[in-house]
Design brief:
With about 450 residues, this protein is α/β, with parallel strands linked by helices. It has helices spanning about 50-65, 80-90, 105-115, 135-145, 160-175, 190-200, 220-225, 260-275, 280-295, 320-325, 335-340, 360-370, 385-395, 420-430, 450-460; strands at about 1-5, 5-10, 20-25, 35-40, 70-75, 95-100, 120, 150, 180-185, 205-215, 255-260, 300-305, 350-355, 370-375, 380-385, 415, 435-440, 445-450. α1 crosses α2. The chain is elongated.
Length: about 450
């Protein structure tokens, strides 16, 4: 930090990396026996914990004389390390080229290009040694371009060293040395290795817990020392199908695995309940931290590292349609209003008024292909017309079409608030209710049928 004539400022955006805050997860962590504090790394200028290693690895390459003015920074990345390196490249006057798996969010690709970086996408479902893998492509680019240097975050000792020098001491100081459990996702392993090593140097009794997505091999390797077969998963930026050299398992006491459903929905809960807007790997780490906290006593203090901002996943984790299409959307975290908004069919509420002739109801049923019609008297719902009953009445007595709808209407449908969770709607529909009405700001705004719920569960057309 610099001062000139009483004006305080930073000379470079890179000077603002680090010193991120701890925030208690009060709502999502409600009912746990001990507090869970989040180290919110999206406060870094590039929006993620990887800003720390981006700066550290470049400075290390400069000290070694391997990265020189006008050179090119090359890296294989799921996005965040690339963004940290792209930011450093601009500030230090380097070019940048990044290789990424094709499962990454489009936001990450656009962000890298916004910094002027080149981006190369590679298929996700190939072995690391395959010539088309993003690891292999990055190595090839670094070898072919004069002045290019591969940062190699997976094997670079500057990766864990950055966290030993900065993140670990910050957490120790912020908790006044009272931390008992530290939880972080494992990808390159640099974050958990560096922070865990520092914390254990201060207090060997601190439990260091790795969070691993189901499909990754890291948990199995930690527990057995043997390699296993990796499977694809949706959570980005964590887990591996090989063992990075930056990961020191001797620092990790145990590993907890989390599936896509639990991790991604936890990320959504953090935004809606604690106003902490993060990505899927942060949701996974939080879910694992809560599992650890359940087994901890009231005197424990759990700290979980949240790697990045949710802004990079607006088209994925924080998009209802993407979550539903991938069969990941949790009904308890989805509102009735969201269900209405996602209906692929007619969204406008079709209804009739008490006293209108039955032929009006029949016309609406045929025109809009609906099975239930709410009957209103002013702003109040007074009954329901069932498609089958209307048709039976019309066929048995054509003159009945001139009778008021009141003569054959049934009881009103149940009404739920717009913010009622979707699982509550599902329970009502399972109780022989063919549909429910949704009320928002005092007015009935829509109807949800069993068909709508089936579409929601199926993630598309039912």
């Amino acid at each position: 930090m610099s001062t000139l004539d009483g004006v305080t400022y930073y000379k470079s955006i890179l000077d603002t990396v680090g010193n991120t805050p701890l925030v208690q997860l009060k709502e999502t962590g409600k009912g746990l026996p001990c507090p869970v504090l989040a180290k919110v790394e999206f406060f870094n200028p590039g929006g993620s914990v990887k800003d720390r290693i981006g700066l550290a690895m470049v400075e290390d390459m400069e000290r070694q004389g391997r990265l020189k003015p006008g050179g090119t920074i090359v890296e294989c990345t799921s996005g965040n390390t690339g963004l940290g390196l792209a930011m450093v490249a601009v500030a230090r006057g380097y070019r940048a080229a990044f290789c990424m798996p094709d499962k990454v969010s489009s936001e990450k690709v656009y962000l890298l290009k916004a910094f002027g970086a080149e981006v190369f996408l590679s298929p996700t479902a190939v072995e690391p040694t395959h010539p088309d893998s993003y690891y292999s492509v990055a190595k090839r680019i670094a070898a072919e371009r004069p002045g290019a240097v591969l940062m190699d975050q997976y094997n670079n000792p500057a990766n864990p060293a950055a966290h030993y020098a900065t993140t670990g001491p910050e957490i120790w100081k912020q908790t006044a040395g009272k931390i008992t459990h530290f939880v972080a996702g494992m990808g390159t392993g640099g974050t958990i290795t560096g922070i865990g090593r520092y914390l254990k140097d201060q207090n060997p009794k601190i439990q260091v817990i790795g969070a691993d997505p189901v499909g990754s091999i890291l948990k199995h390797y930690k527990e057995t020392g043997e390699m296993s077969e990796a499977h694809t998963y949706k959570i980005e930026g964590v887990g591996e199908d090989f063992i990075p050299k930056a990961l020191d398992f001797s620092v990790v006491d145990r590993v907890i695995q989390c599936n896509d459903h639990d991790g991604l929905n936890m990320a959504r809960r953090l935004a809606r309940e604690d106003a902490v807007f993060v990505g899927g790997s942060a949701g996974m780490a939080t879910w694992c931290a809560f599992q650890a906290a359940k087994d901890a006593g009231p005197d424990a203090l759990v700290v979980v590292l949240l790697p990045d901002t949710g802004e990079r996943y607006l088209t994925k984790v924080h998009n209802d349609e993407w979550m539903r299409d991938n069969h990941l959307l949790d009904p308890s975290a989805t509102s009735a209003a969201s269900l209405l908004g996602s209906k692929p069919r007619l969204r406008k509420l079709i209804s009739v008024n008490a006293g209108e002739p039955l032929k009006r109801a029949l016309a609406l049923i045929e025109q809009h292909d609906v099975s239930q019609l709410p009957v209103f008297s002013g702003a109040d719902v007074v009954g329901t017309l069932d498609e089958g009953e209307v048709l039976r009445t019309a066929l048995s007595d054509p003159k009945a079409l001139e009778k008021p709808v009141d003569s054959i209407m049934g009881a009103p449908l149940p009404v739920v608030a717009a913010n009622e969770p979707a699982d509550a709607v599902a329970k009502l529909l399972a109780m022989r209710n063919p549909a429910v009405l949704v009320k928002d700001n005092g007015a009935i705004t829509g109807i949800l049928t069993r068909f709508d719920m089936l579409q929601f569960i199926a993630g598309g057309e039912a």
